[in-house]
Amino acid sequence: MTMSEYSDRENLRSRRKKMVPKADPMTSYADEVELANFTPEASERSENKTNSGSVKLHSRDTDLGNGSAVVESELNSRDEEEQEEDDEESVEQPLLSHEDDGDNNCASSRTSVDVADQPQEKCLNIAFQVFIPYIIAGLGTVGAGLVLDVVQHWKVFMDVKEVFILVPALLGLKGNLEMTLASRLSTQANLGNMDTRSEKLKMIGGNLALVQAQAIVVGLVASVVAMVMGWIPEGEFNFHHGVLLCASSVFTAAVASFILGLIMVAVILCSRKFNINPDNVATPIAASLGDLITLSLLAAVATLLYNAIGKQVWLAPTVIVVFLVLIPLWVVISIKNRYTNEVIYSGWFPVLCAVFISSIGGLILDFSVGHYPGIAVFQPVINGVGGNLVAVQASRISTSLHRQGQPGEFAHDLGSGYLNPINTFFGKHIDSKAARVLLLLVVPGHLIFMSVIYSMPAGHTTITASFVGVYLLAALLQVTILLYIANWMIHVIWRKGDDPDNIAIPYLTALGDLLGTGFLALAFHFLYLVGDRDADVGE
Prior knowledge:
Number of helices: 20
Largest sheet: 4 strands, antiparallel
Order of helices and strands: HEHEEEHHHHHHHHHHHHHHHHHH
Structural class: mainly alpha
Oligomer: single chain
Helix content: over 70%
Strand content: under 5%
Radius of gyration: 34 Å
């Protein structure tokens, strides 16, 4: 063998060693290697060497025109496949989407991990975020109280006494519908399900249609309840007054809910943009204009329809028919939307029950305002404040439960001790801290609101030290009871497998109306018994 032949053979052997791919798990799936003078026997030897591990090398040589060959190799790494499967499973899906029911367990486990990653809010941060919307909302209820103090002397309110029964039921719409809407959207915003434009539009559009359908039905039911409660003690029924109540209630409920629904959507989107927890601000702002808008609409529409009696008899029936015709449209939109197709079937019972509970408060108001005219200006305030604070707490607890899993699932720290009132206010969990913060806001808030009322030439009672003490005691009792009920009610609803965002707030705000009006009536009656009988302020 000559030196040149020996050198050529060594070069060929060296080139073959370089061309055989190593069994590296990170090697590409389709790795093309060009070899010159690469024989099939050499390819088989290299394949046999690389098949000993968990990585398989498939070789195929193809002759080229220049006498060379191309070897296509495929590497299948078991570790790489498992890594890709894990990556695919980590992709987040909207929790409300039920297009793939098989992902429910996955979503549950992912949410459980998120709970540990969530930073704990400090009491100071909660107070700071809640206080300003709470004061704004309270000033809105003060405005509503001043409006009620004025319109109680209007002819329609004096002749059609059932309108007073409508007031708590329609003012309660902000809790039955708008605050429930705010709670649903706040929960989804905190879970990151409103970050894409398409899902955001679907969620907002479906929820607004749902609220419109519920508002029209609730307005109709509230008017029927008011007519029955007004008819029972008097024993007579006025057809024109009944049509007036029905048309006024339906129009007020639908228009006010549409306006407040748009405001809620804007508040939640802005909160998300500025990194503010929407649970702390959305529901109070829903109430800030809710009472004022609703009461103003009710008074204006009722007066218009009252003046049309005997002149334009077609007006009130036309209003009723127009809104009733729109119900099927809103229902169809809600059914076809995946974010609301469940609520359109299951969300009626809580809302209708809330109407009956609020109407009982309206009956108390109708009875009390004749004996204690001063109750009118404070009734929207005490009811509004209690409803605002309990709605904030309900929305926060619901979000905490959604973060730890699906309805019916409990983490240990969220699922124990909720029946104990001591744990509600003095526990170590973040919801207990929030309850303490919200309870501490009651007294300073009401003092501010009473100062505003005192500075206005309105009201029918002098704000004395005895009145302040009794009034604050009634307000504290109301909020304390509501916060405790909210804690166990939401956990019970969750344990049964239902979504508290769709159920809890209507009950809580209706109970707030009933407790607030009842305690306020007892406070005025107690003051009357002890000699505080001044009722001439503002006359």
